[in-house]
Amino acid sequence: MSRKDKVIINKLLTGVPGLDEIMGGGLPEYSFNIIAGAPGCGKTTLAHQFVFANATAEKPALYFTVLGEPALKMLRYQQQYTFFDHAKVPGAIRFVNLNEVILEQDLDAVLREIIKQVEEINPGVVVVDSFRTVVRKANGVVGEMDLQGFVQRLALHLTSWQATTFLIGEYSDAEIRDNPVFTVADGIFWLHQIAERNSVVRKFQIMKLRGQASVPGLHTFRITEDGLQAFSRTLGLTKRRSKNVTSRRLSIGIPELDKMLGGGIPEGDSILVAGASGTGKSALATQFLAEGIRQGEAGIAAVFEERPTEYTARAGDFGLDLVTPQTNGKLNILYLRPLDLSVDETMQEILDAVQKIGAKRLVIDSLAGFEMALAPGFRTDFRESLYRMISALTGIGVTILSTVELEEAFTELPFSTYSISFLTDDIIRFRYVEIDGELRKVLVVIKMRGGNHSKDIREYEITSDGIVLIGQRLRGYQGLITGIPAQVYRPDEKVAPSPKPKARK
Amino acid sequence: MPTLVTSQTRDFTEQLIAHEAASDQPSKKGVPVAFLVCEKLRRPLTALAGAAGFYSLLLRALTLAKREAPGLGTLQVKADGELEDAGANGNNHDAEEGTFLVANLIALLFSFIGETLTLRLITDVWPDASFMSQGSTGNDSPLTTEGTEKHEPQG
Question: What is the distance in angstroms between the Cα of B32 and the nearest Cα belonging to chain A?
Answer without folding.
Answer: 27
